[in-house]
Amino acid sequence: MKLISCNNCGAEKFSFILEKESSLNELFTVVKCKKCGLVQVNPQPTFEEVGKYYSDEYFTKRTDRGYDNYYSDKIKNEIERVFTLNLQDLGFFEWEKTLYAGRSTIDVGCAAGYFVNFLRNRGWDASGIEIAEGPVNFARKELGLNVFRNDFLEWDTGFSQKFDLITLWASIEHLHKPKETLKKIFKHLRPGGRIIVSTCRYGILAKIRGKNWRYMNVPEHLYYYSLKGLISQCEGIGFKLESRLTYGSGMTSRKDASLFFRLSKYFLDRFVKITNQGDMMALMFKKEN
Ligand SMILES: [Zn+2]
Predict the structure, then answer these.
(1) 14-286, CATH topology level
(2) 16 C-alpha to center of ligand 1: Å?
Protein backbone atom coordinates (compact mmCIF):
# COMPACT_ATOMS: atom_id res chain seq x y z
CA MET A 1 0.00 0.00 0.00
CA LYS A 2 1.28 3.38 -0.98
CA LEU A 3 0.15 6.90 -0.18
CA ILE A 4 -0.07 8.76 -3.48
CA SER A 5 -0.45 12.35 -4.53
CA CYS A 6 -3.60 13.14 -6.52
CA ASN A 7 -3.41 11.61 -9.99
CA ASN A 8 -5.23 14.56 -11.51
CA CYS A 9 -3.63 17.62 -9.89
CA GLY A 10 -0.67 16.37 -7.85
CA ALA A 11 -1.97 17.77 -4.54
CA GLU A 12 -1.32 15.85 -1.33
CA LYS A 13 -4.17 16.99 0.88
CA PHE A 14 -7.31 14.91 1.07
CA SER A 15 -10.52 14.78 3.06
CA PHE A 16 -11.87 11.47 4.36
CA ILE A 17 -15.02 10.07 2.73
CA LEU A 18 -15.42 6.46 3.84
CA GLU A 19 -13.78 3.17 4.68
CA LYS A 20 -14.82 -0.09 3.11
CA GLU A 21 -13.72 -3.72 3.12
CA SER A 22 -12.74 -5.45 -0.08
CA SER A 23 -14.01 -8.89 -1.11
CA LEU A 24 -10.85 -10.26 0.55
CA ASN A 25 -11.69 -8.42 3.80
CA GLU A 26 -8.94 -5.85 3.50
CA LEU A 27 -9.86 -2.35 4.61
CA PHE A 28 -9.48 0.55 2.16
CA THR A 29 -9.93 4.28 2.61
CA VAL A 30 -11.65 6.49 0.05
CA VAL A 31 -10.74 10.17 0.10
CA LYS A 32 -11.41 13.31 -1.90
CA CYS A 33 -8.66 15.61 -3.16
CA LYS A 34 -8.99 18.98 -1.43
CA LYS A 35 -7.73 20.82 -4.50
CA CYS A 36 -9.50 19.24 -7.49
CA GLY A 37 -12.16 17.05 -5.86
CA LEU A 38 -11.13 13.73 -7.42
CA VAL A 39 -12.40 10.85 -5.26
CA GLN A 40 -9.90 8.02 -4.94
CA VAL A 41 -8.71 5.04 -2.93
CA ASN A 42 -5.69 6.32 -1.00
CA PRO A 43 -3.36 4.79 0.12
CA GLN A 44 -3.50 2.59 -2.98
CA PRO A 45 -2.51 -1.03 -3.38
CA THR A 46 0.31 -1.34 -5.91
CA PHE A 47 -0.20 -2.68 -9.42
CA GLU A 48 1.13 -6.06 -8.23
CA GLU A 49 -1.10 -6.07 -5.14
CA VAL A 50 -4.37 -5.64 -7.06
CA GLY A 51 -3.60 -8.65 -9.28
CA LYS A 52 -5.23 -11.01 -6.78
CA TYR A 53 -8.54 -9.17 -7.24
CA TYR A 54 -8.63 -10.09 -10.92
CA SER A 55 -8.35 -13.85 -10.79
CA ASP A 56 -10.50 -15.80 -13.24
CA GLU A 57 -13.24 -15.89 -10.61
CA TYR A 58 -13.76 -12.14 -11.11
CA PHE A 59 -15.13 -12.96 -14.55
CA THR A 60 -16.91 -16.23 -13.84
CA LYS A 61 -18.47 -16.09 -10.37
CA ARG A 62 -21.48 -14.11 -9.30
CA THR A 63 -20.51 -11.58 -6.64
CA ASP A 64 -21.68 -8.09 -5.78
CA ARG A 65 -18.73 -6.73 -7.73
CA GLY A 66 -17.73 -9.24 -10.40
CA TYR A 67 -19.69 -10.92 -13.13
CA ASP A 68 -21.99 -13.89 -13.33
CA ASN A 69 -20.07 -15.67 -16.08
CA TYR A 70 -18.80 -12.82 -18.20
CA TYR A 71 -18.40 -15.23 -21.12
CA SER A 72 -22.06 -16.21 -21.37
CA ASP A 73 -24.21 -15.07 -24.31
CA LYS A 74 -26.54 -13.40 -21.84
CA ILE A 75 -23.84 -11.06 -20.47
CA LYS A 76 -22.39 -10.49 -23.95
CA ASN A 77 -25.82 -9.43 -25.24
CA GLU A 78 -26.44 -7.17 -22.26
CA ILE A 79 -23.04 -5.48 -22.66
CA GLU A 80 -23.66 -4.97 -26.39
CA ARG A 81 -27.11 -3.55 -25.69
CA VAL A 82 -25.66 -0.97 -23.28
CA PHE A 83 -22.79 0.21 -25.45
CA THR A 84 -25.03 0.39 -28.53
CA LEU A 85 -27.40 2.70 -26.62
CA ASN A 86 -24.43 4.77 -25.44
CA LEU A 87 -23.09 5.02 -29.00
CA GLN A 88 -26.48 6.16 -30.31
CA ASP A 89 -26.83 8.82 -27.62
CA LEU A 90 -23.27 10.04 -28.16
CA GLY A 91 -23.81 10.52 -31.89
CA PHE A 92 -21.12 7.96 -32.68
CA PHE A 93 -22.87 6.40 -35.66
CA GLU A 94 -23.18 9.76 -37.46
CA TRP A 95 -19.46 10.37 -36.98
CA GLU A 96 -18.64 6.81 -38.07
CA LYS A 97 -20.35 7.47 -41.45
CA THR A 98 -17.84 10.23 -42.21
CA LEU A 99 -14.83 7.90 -41.91
CA TYR A 100 -12.84 6.21 -44.63
CA ALA A 101 -12.62 2.42 -45.11
CA GLY A 102 -9.89 0.82 -43.02
CA ARG A 103 -10.58 3.07 -40.03
CA SER A 104 -8.76 1.83 -36.98
CA THR A 105 -9.52 1.49 -33.30
CA ILE A 106 -8.17 0.06 -30.07
CA ASP A 107 -10.19 -0.68 -26.93
CA VAL A 108 -8.14 -0.14 -23.77
CA GLY A 109 -9.09 -2.63 -21.04
CA CYS A 110 -11.12 -4.62 -23.55
CA ALA A 111 -11.87 -7.63 -21.29
CA ALA A 112 -13.27 -10.44 -23.50
CA GLY A 113 -13.25 -8.15 -26.53
CA TYR A 114 -16.98 -7.68 -27.08
CA PHE A 115 -16.57 -4.11 -28.27
CA VAL A 116 -13.58 -5.02 -30.46
CA ASN A 117 -15.74 -7.72 -32.01
CA PHE A 118 -18.65 -5.30 -32.50
CA LEU A 119 -16.51 -2.79 -34.40
CA ARG A 120 -14.70 -5.45 -36.40
CA ASN A 121 -18.12 -6.61 -37.60
CA ARG A 122 -18.81 -3.01 -38.69
CA GLY A 123 -15.72 -2.97 -40.87
CA TRP A 124 -13.17 -1.44 -38.50
CA ASP A 125 -9.56 -2.51 -38.21
CA ALA A 126 -10.18 -3.30 -34.53
CA SER A 127 -7.86 -4.37 -31.75
CA GLY A 128 -7.88 -4.43 -27.97
CA ILE A 129 -5.49 -4.42 -25.05
CA GLU A 130 -6.14 -6.10 -21.73
CA ILE A 131 -4.06 -7.15 -18.75
CA ALA A 132 -6.14 -10.07 -17.37
CA GLU A 133 -5.21 -13.44 -18.84
CA GLY A 134 -8.61 -15.23 -18.85
CA PRO A 135 -10.50 -12.71 -21.00
CA VAL A 136 -7.52 -12.24 -23.36
CA ASN A 137 -7.52 -15.98 -24.05
CA PHE A 138 -11.27 -15.91 -24.65
CA ALA A 139 -11.02 -12.94 -27.02
CA ARG A 140 -8.28 -14.61 -29.03
CA LYS A 141 -9.52 -18.20 -29.09
CA GLU A 142 -13.30 -17.85 -29.10
CA LEU A 143 -13.68 -14.61 -31.06
CA GLY A 144 -10.45 -14.67 -33.06
CA LEU A 145 -9.64 -11.07 -32.14
CA ASN A 146 -6.42 -9.12 -32.24
CA VAL A 147 -5.87 -8.49 -28.52
CA PHE A 148 -2.58 -7.58 -26.84
CA ARG A 149 -1.98 -8.80 -23.33
CA ASN A 150 -0.24 -5.84 -21.78
CA ASP A 151 -0.58 -2.71 -19.70
CA PHE A 152 -1.43 0.09 -22.13
CA LEU A 153 1.19 2.35 -20.53
CA GLU A 154 3.89 -0.29 -21.02
CA TRP A 155 2.72 -1.13 -24.51
CA ASP A 156 5.24 0.40 -26.85
CA THR A 157 4.45 1.16 -30.42
CA GLY A 158 7.05 3.89 -30.55
CA PHE A 159 4.08 6.23 -30.88
CA SER A 160 4.04 5.43 -34.58
CA GLN A 161 0.64 3.78 -34.62
CA LYS A 162 -2.33 6.13 -34.73
CA PHE A 163 -6.01 5.34 -34.38
CA ASP A 164 -9.28 6.99 -35.38
CA LEU A 165 -10.98 5.86 -32.18
CA ILE A 166 -9.73 4.78 -28.76
CA THR A 167 -12.20 3.60 -26.14
CA LEU A 168 -12.17 3.13 -22.39
CA TRP A 169 -15.37 1.28 -21.50
CA ALA A 170 -15.66 1.11 -17.72
CA SER A 171 -11.93 0.75 -17.39
CA ILE A 172 -10.56 4.18 -16.38
CA GLU A 173 -11.75 3.67 -12.78
CA HIS A 174 -9.59 0.53 -12.57
CA LEU A 175 -6.36 2.19 -13.71
CA HIS A 176 -3.52 3.25 -11.41
CA LYS A 177 -2.52 6.06 -13.73
CA PRO A 178 -5.63 7.33 -15.53
CA LYS A 179 -4.18 10.75 -16.40
CA GLU A 180 -1.05 9.24 -17.95
CA THR A 181 -3.29 6.83 -19.86
CA LEU A 182 -5.43 9.67 -21.24
CA LYS A 183 -2.28 11.52 -22.31
CA LYS A 184 -0.95 8.45 -24.09
CA ILE A 185 -4.33 7.99 -25.81
CA PHE A 186 -4.16 11.60 -27.00
CA LYS A 187 -0.80 10.92 -28.64
CA HIS A 188 -2.12 7.76 -30.31
CA LEU A 189 -5.16 9.46 -31.87
CA ARG A 190 -5.19 10.85 -35.37
CA PRO A 191 -6.19 14.50 -35.68
CA GLY A 192 -10.00 14.49 -35.79
CA GLY A 193 -10.06 11.18 -33.90
CA ARG A 194 -12.35 10.41 -30.99
CA ILE A 195 -12.01 8.97 -27.52
CA ILE A 196 -15.02 7.46 -25.77
CA VAL A 197 -14.81 7.10 -21.99
CA SER A 198 -17.47 5.46 -19.88
CA THR A 199 -17.22 5.13 -16.12
CA CYS A 200 -19.30 5.20 -12.96
CA ARG A 201 -20.16 8.74 -12.01
CA TYR A 202 -19.55 10.18 -8.56
CA GLY A 203 -22.65 12.33 -8.20
CA ILE A 204 -25.72 12.61 -6.06
CA LEU A 205 -26.63 8.90 -6.09
CA ALA A 206 -23.09 7.96 -5.02
CA LYS A 207 -23.14 10.51 -2.20
CA ILE A 208 -26.52 9.32 -0.91
CA ARG A 209 -25.59 5.63 -1.02
CA GLY A 210 -22.08 6.06 0.45
CA LYS A 211 -20.29 2.77 0.89
CA ASN A 212 -23.39 0.92 -0.28
CA TRP A 213 -23.28 2.61 -3.69
CA ARG A 214 -23.26 -0.13 -6.33
CA TYR A 215 -19.98 1.05 -7.86
CA MET A 216 -18.10 1.62 -4.60
CA ASN A 217 -15.97 -1.47 -5.19
CA VAL A 218 -12.60 -1.21 -3.48
CA PRO A 219 -9.89 -1.62 -4.51
CA GLU A 220 -10.96 -2.65 -8.05
CA HIS A 221 -12.29 0.86 -8.62
CA LEU A 222 -9.45 3.18 -7.64
CA TYR A 223 -10.92 6.45 -8.97
CA TYR A 224 -14.43 7.90 -8.87
CA TYR A 225 -14.94 10.84 -11.24
CA SER A 226 -17.62 13.47 -11.17
CA LEU A 227 -19.00 14.47 -14.58
CA LYS A 228 -17.44 17.91 -14.29
CA GLY A 229 -14.14 16.50 -13.00
CA LEU A 230 -13.74 14.07 -15.89
CA ILE A 231 -14.56 16.73 -18.49
CA SER A 232 -12.06 19.12 -16.93
CA GLN A 233 -9.34 16.46 -16.79
CA CYS A 234 -9.82 15.49 -20.45
CA GLU A 235 -10.01 19.10 -21.61
CA GLY A 236 -6.82 19.84 -19.66
CA ILE A 237 -5.08 17.22 -21.79
CA GLY A 238 -6.33 18.80 -25.00
CA PHE A 239 -9.51 16.89 -25.85
CA LYS A 240 -12.62 18.77 -26.87
CA LEU A 241 -15.97 17.54 -25.54
CA GLU A 242 -18.35 16.41 -28.30
CA SER A 243 -21.19 14.75 -26.38
CA ARG A 244 -21.99 13.18 -23.05
CA LEU A 245 -24.75 11.41 -21.17
CA THR A 246 -25.48 9.96 -17.77
CA TYR A 247 -27.79 7.05 -17.08
CA GLY A 248 -28.69 4.41 -14.51
CA SER A 249 -30.51 4.78 -11.23
CA GLY A 250 -28.97 1.84 -9.41
CA MET A 251 -32.22 -0.10 -9.35
CA THR A 252 -31.48 -3.52 -10.78
CA SER A 253 -34.12 -5.56 -12.49
CA ARG A 254 -34.85 -9.11 -11.45
CA LYS A 255 -36.94 -11.63 -13.33
CA ASP A 256 -39.37 -11.96 -10.42
CA ALA A 257 -39.64 -8.21 -9.83
CA SER A 258 -43.15 -6.93 -9.22
CA LEU A 259 -44.89 -4.69 -11.72
CA PHE A 260 -44.56 -1.84 -9.20
CA PHE A 261 -40.80 -2.38 -8.94
CA ARG A 262 -40.40 -2.54 -12.71
CA LEU A 263 -42.44 0.61 -13.19
CA SER A 264 -40.47 2.40 -10.46
CA LYS A 265 -37.24 1.38 -12.11
CA TYR A 266 -38.50 2.53 -15.51
CA PHE A 267 -39.45 5.98 -14.21
CA LEU A 268 -36.39 6.41 -12.00
CA ASP A 269 -34.09 5.40 -14.88
CA ARG A 270 -35.89 7.89 -17.15
CA PHE A 271 -35.81 10.56 -14.45
CA VAL A 272 -32.05 10.34 -13.78
CA LYS A 273 -31.37 10.39 -17.51
CA ILE A 274 -33.52 13.46 -18.14
CA THR A 275 -32.20 15.30 -15.08
CA ASN A 276 -28.67 14.16 -15.88
CA GLN A 277 -28.17 12.51 -12.47
CA GLY A 278 -27.41 8.93 -13.55
CA ASP A 279 -24.59 7.12 -11.77
CA MET A 280 -23.02 5.96 -15.02
CA MET A 281 -21.68 8.32 -17.66
CA ALA A 282 -20.33 8.10 -21.18
CA LEU A 283 -18.47 10.90 -22.93
CA MET A 284 -17.06 11.38 -26.40
CA PHE A 285 -14.18 13.80 -26.99
CA LYS A 286 -12.43 14.89 -30.14
CA LYS A 287 -8.78 15.47 -30.84
CA GLU A 288 -8.90 18.54 -33.02
CA ASN A 289 -7.11 18.82 -36.32
ZN1 LIG B 1 -6.48 16.63 -7.11
Answers:
(1) Rossmann fold (3.40.50)
(2) 14
Cα-to-centroid distance, 4 and ligand 1 (Å): 11
C-alpha of residue 37 to centroid of ligand 1, in Å: 6
Angle at Cα 242 formed by Cα 202 and Cα 177, nearest 5°? Answer: 50
Distance between CA 242 and CA 87 in Å, rounded? 12
Measured N-to-C along each axis, helices 178-188 and 227-237 cross at an angle, to the nearest 10 degrees, of 50
Q: Is the pLDDT of residue 136 over 90?
A: yes
Confidence of residue 144 (pLDDT cuts 50, 70, 90): very high
Per the CB < 8 A criterion, the answer to whether 202 and 224 are in contact is: yes
3-state SS assignment for residue 53: helix
| Of 238, 282, 221, nearest in space to 89 by CA | 282
Compute the distance from residue 216 Cα to the ligand 1 centre, in Å: 19
**What residue spans define the domains of the chain?**
14-286
Q: What is the DSSP string of 60-111?
A: HS--SSS-S-TTSHHHHHHHHHHHHHHHHHHTHHHHHHTSPTT-EEEEET-T
Q: How many angstroms separate the alpha carbon of residue 173 from the centre of ligand 1?
A: 15
Task: Report angle CA 218, 267, 85 to the nearest 5 degrees.
Answer: 65
Confidence of residue 60 (pLDDT cuts 50, 70, 90): confident
16/22 Cα distance (integer angstroms): 18
Per-residue model confidence (pLDDT) at position 158: 58
